[in-house]
Amino acid sequence: MIEIAIDGTAASGKGTLGKKLSEKYSFPYLDTGMLYRKVAYELIKSNKINTEKLEQTCCDFGTIVTFKELKNKNLRTEDVTKLASKIATFPNLRKILNNKQKKFNNLSKKKYGGCILDGRDIGTTILPNADFKFFITASLEVRAKRRLLEKNISFLHENDEKCMLQNLMNNMRERDNQDSKRKISPLVPAKDAHIIDTTIINPEELLLIVTNIIENNMSC
Ligand code: CDP
Questions:
Q1: I need a labelling partner for 87 at 20 to 30 A (CA). Which of 33, 42, 139, 218 fits?
Q2: CA 216 / ligand 1 centre spacing (Å)
Q3: Which of 87, 98, 120, 136 to mutate to test the pocket of ligand 1 (most atoms within 8 A of CB)?
Q4: pTM for this structure?
Q5: Which residues pair with residue 4 across a beta bridge?
Q6: Which residues pair with 116 in a beta bridge?
Q7: Which residues contact 8 (CB under 8 A, 6 or more apart)?
Q8: How does pLDDT run across 11-36, given as a tens digit for each residue?
């Protein structure tokens, strides 16, 4: 049974890698960030961002979140993204969502022989004994440009595009900082992770690098 843990900075290519590996090896894939995004989204939707019992409210939403609800375009807005990083600092929420991720992993391994998880603390906290750990990163500018492309906006003026790119860079820098500096489960590479910088490599090249590592180590 194979566990593959992928961690890394925002828009570094870890999600695309997770999906491609899932297609290649037919193991279920979970983008764990979507769980934090879903809780953030529900907070915004129910107008509870300023509640005094913010952590408890997050835990209530976290308890009822199901994997089926994670394919929603509304989970990828900038407001949800920012709030997801803020609430991801809550230890009690992390406990609830960690359990869900571990259950997903156990069920997937039993049923399909393997599992792929991507996030911030997969190799360090969720799957510390994963067979393969990858930590994916890239320069801030390249990552922000990728996010801009994902948004699929056609700009009328070059200045608007520049301004949006700058905003994305600022938000991403702030979020990476928050994710790396928090006390509980910070974004850091696991000691035994393969660290890969995707600044000048495309998703196909990344897949090739990763599958070579996996396949060269699976035969022994
Ligand atoms: O897609 P992107 O890399 O921009 O973000 P994401 O993976 O959807 O994660 C959104 C936020 O959730 C991150 O900024 C983290 O604060 C948090 N997160 C986390 O703390 N632990 C995880 N395992 C996954 C996400």
A1: 139
A2: 30
A3: 120
A4: 0.95
A5: 116, 132
A6: 4, 29
A7: 14, 118, 120, 134, 135, 136, 137, 187
A8: 999 999 999 999 999 999 999 999 99
